[in-house]
Write a structure and sequence with these properties.
The protein is mainly alpha-helical. Among the domains are: about 130 residues, no CATH class; about 110 residues, no CATH class; about 50 residues; about 120 residues, no CATH class; about 90 residues. Helix content is about 80%, strand content about 0%. The chain is built from 27 helices and no strands. The protein is elongated and about 130 Å long. The termini are far apart. About 15% of the residues have low confidence.
């Protein structure tokens, strides 16, 4: 009995869902229906006797012909047939040739009648007839009592069968036969009521008959064991087909819900102890297809929710007792088929444009997520199958991106990349190198082809395009790097990175004439791989030199293309190189260090030259963005590295000889002289940033002399340090005074002129 009650609960839930979707459809029709024109009070019949407010004057064919027709009642009240519906609303029988309304008689436009028809009673009647919703009493009487009555009959029949079993009133065969007969009778009676015009009443009676037929078959198989499982299964399929045929013929969504729910519930009502995966999942696939056809034919999208929920329950109920790792292939194929079917249904429901269709599409949107998680769980223990599945999913994502957009492709690519990288971490080694690289290459190639297709077919280049372009190249290279580094012990990853960078530049050259934005991003990606190749292939100063050169090239490209983001990327990379250079110069000198003839000094000189080059690039572009800032940043960077280089070489020279006093004195004197030279250059060229930096160097020198040199140096070195600093300060002050005097003389001459 528990299975039967579960079935009835499912039916009740389906009825509630149907009611909700009916309400949604009513709202849609109400919103889409054009406003009815205001009733012309001059078109009312002169002889019209208006019924009192609240009296219904319409009787349709649903009354079974027991009441008078509108024409008869209208004539009996003295209303012309063409105006029996009256009150300003045209009836189809009042239309003349061509569908145009016939001209009313002359008596219609009587002035006295116009005054009469504007009474408050008539307006109240019109509003009540058109706008009053169905009352609560009517809903209870015509619908809820009907629902409860049918459910009560079904439950009563079920309990009567149990009572008959307990008291042995009738034989087992007779019990089943009487239930089947009752179900057929109710189904027949329900169809008769539908024909008579009582659609809802008849549909519920027929639905109750179908439910009793299901229960009778269930009892014959589970309780009495009168029939075998194949026979019971065939009977339930026949019942499902009959109810579905009635639903389609009578256009009853309630019967359709019963048919779909009963069809999917059949395996639950007829449980077995043997594994019949192919038959069970094949049966569900046929039911899903039939549900799609019926829902499209009658515009009942709610049926697809029932099939989706029951499909999930069926797969879960089968997997709990029967699934083993050896059955992964048919299981994966079937859930792939189910997912494809529900994705198709999702698309069709969304394209319908109806609110109910979009609600169904929103619910079915969980199908790809459930499929994705289930597939990963199934294929985790099967590495080769996992790789094939990932490539297949990426192929589907590529097709999806060409139809929907790169956002969808990016989402699928991310869903593929995450488990692929986990797989690589679990299967590093020589045995999995070729399959892993083939999968990485396949995913990269599919994603790249989708990106290029979207680039040539669409004009927009959005954030999703940028993220996918860079992410596809970087993460696929990272995956390949992990595989190669774990399996191949020779250092070839740097060469692979360089080759991948050259490939990016080749792509840029191929599309630059048609898609310049994409080409620039491919160039940038190529520079990124070049940086990686330098870091993998070289050590120490060579890495810094490579990054500095690359950063300067990227800045130059950004200036040429007027791409601020590209220029800032180059500045960031160059700043990293500058930081590495300063840290390198601050480190201890190695044994055998030769002043200014070493790799550290070479690295610093390259960075200084590149800094001057970047300043010159900004200087030669009058309309360059942030031109003055670029010039100043380049020049100041060169001075910072130059001071660091001089300090490093002085310290290295005297440190090898362990002469501390000479090192401190030489540093102070060098800083002072360098600041003085910068002051001279700044005054001569009238460039303030250089002078400001020189003053900063002087400030640091002054602090060093009075805080460090005065405390640590011997007397003669202390005297030399202080006198040298004072001399340089006096010279610098004189230069400032002379420059000021020269500017004043120029201003005076200009004033006299």
């Amino acid at each position: 009995m528990s299975e039967a009650l579960l079935f009835l609960m499912v039916v009740a839930l389906g009825a509630a869902l149907r009611r909700a979707f009916v309400r949604i459809e009513q709202l849609e029709r109400a919103q889409s229906r054009p406003a009815e024109p205001a009733m012309s009070q001059a078109t009312l019949p002169a002889e019209s006797n208006l019924p009192p407010t609240g009296e219904s004057h319409e009787t349709g064919p649903d009354t079974g012909g027991s009441h008078e027709t509108e024409r008869d009642s209208g004539e009996r009240r003295g209303v012309p047939p063409s105006h029996a519906r009256g009150f300003g609303l045209l009836d189809h029988r009042s239309l003349g040739k061509g569908g145009q309304p016939e001209a009313p008689p002359a008596a219609v436009v009587a002035p006295a009648m116009v005054q009469e028809t504007t009474s408050p009673e008539l307006r109240s009647f019109r509003l009540q007839k058109v706008e009053d919703p169905e009352s609560l009493e009517t809903q209870i009487g015509t619908q809820w009592l009907l629902y409860i009555g049918v459910i009560a009959i079904v439950i009563g029949v079920a309990y009567f069968e149990k009572l008959a079993i307990d008291n042995r009133w009738i034989g087992e065969t007779a019990r089943v036969i009487q239930g089947a007969v009752l179900g057929l009778v109710l189904t027949f009676v329900g169809t008769r009521f539908v024909r008579a015009g009582y659609a809802l009443y008849g549909q519920m009676i027929a639905g109750g008959g179908g439910a009793i037929l299901y229960l009778s078959t269930y009892a014959a198989f589970n309780f009495y064991h009168l029939i075998d499982r194949p026979v019971a299964f065939g009977l339930m399929i026949a019942i499902t087909a009959m109810v579905a045929w009635l639903a389609d013929r009578r256009q009853s969504q309630g019967l359709a819900l019963l048919a779909v729910g009963g069809g999917f519930a059949t395996p639950f009502l007829l449980p077995g102890t043997t594994d019949a995966q192919l038959a069970l999942f094949g049966y569900d696939a046929i039911l899903i297809g039939g549900t799609v056809l019926l829902s499209r034919r009658r515009n009942w999208p709610i049926l697809n929710i029932v099939s989706y929920v029951f499909t999930l329950c069926t797969v879960a109920a089968w997997a709990a007792p029967f699934y083993t790792s050896a059955k992964f292939l048919p299981t994966e194929l079937f859930i792939t088929l189910f997912c494809a079917m529900f994705v198709y249904i999702l698309r069709e429901c969304y394209r319908s444009g109806q609110v109910s269709g979009k609600v169904v599409a929103l619910i079915l949107g969980t199908a790809p997520v459930v499929y994705y998680l289930a597939s990963i769980a199934i294929l985790t223990d099967h590495p080769t199958a996992m790789l094939v599945w990932l490539v297949a999913v990426m192929l589907a994502g590529g097709v999806l991106s060409t139809g929907i957009g790169t956002g969808a492709g990016l989402a699928v690519w991310f869903a593929v990349t995450l488990p692929l990288m986990v797989w690589i971490q679990l299967h590093m080694g020589q045995a999995w190198l070729v399959p892993g690289l083939a999968t990485v290459g396949g995913v990269y190639a599919i994603a790249l082809a989708s990106q290029l297709y979207c680039a040539f077919e669409r004009d927009e280049f959005e954030v999703a395009d940028i993220l996918w372009l860079h992410g596809n190249g970087l993460l696929m290279f990272a995956s390949a790097y992990v595989l190669i580094d774990a399996a191949v012990h020779t250092p070839i990853t740097g060469a692979v990175a360089a080759a991948f960078g050259l490939w990016q530049w080749g792509l840029a050259a191929g599309i630059v004439k048609r898609r310049r934005d994409h080409a620039i991003h491919f160039v940038t990606l190529g520079f990124t791989f070049l940086s990686i190749a330098i870091a993998l292939q070289f050590d120490g100063p060579a890495i810094t030199i490579g990054w500095a050169v690359e950063g300067a090239l990227v800045v130059a490209l950004g200036l040429r293309e007027r791409r601020d983001w590209l220029r800032m990327g180059g500045v960031l990379l160059f700043a990293v190189a500058v930081g590495r250079t300063v840290m390198l110069l601050a480190s201890d000198a190695p044994v055998g260090h030769v002043v200014f003839l070493n790799s550290r000094a070479a690295c610093a000189l390259v960075v200084i030259a590149l800094s001057y080059g970047l300043a010159w690039l900004h200087y030669r572009e009058p309309d360059a963005p942030d031109r003055d800032l670029g010039i100043g940043a380049g020049l100041i960077t060169a001075q910072v590295v130059a001071v660091a280089l001089l300090t490093s070489e002085i310290n290295a020279y005297w440190a090898l000889r362990e002469w501390t006093f000479e090192r401190q004195l030489g540093t102070s004197v060098t800083w002072g002289v360098y600041a003085t030279v910068l002051i001279i250059i700044g005054l001569k060229n009238g460039y303030a940033p250089i002078r400001y930096f020189a003053i900063l160097v002087f400030s640091v020198t002054i602090v060093k002399v009075f805080a460090v040199d005065m405390a640590e140096l011997e007397r003669i070195y202390r005297v030399a340090s202080v006198i040298g600093l004072g001399t340089l300060l006096l010279v610098t002050s004189y230069l400032y005074s002379r420059s000021r005097r020269a500017h004043s003389a120029i201003d005076d001459r200009n004033g006299r002129g």
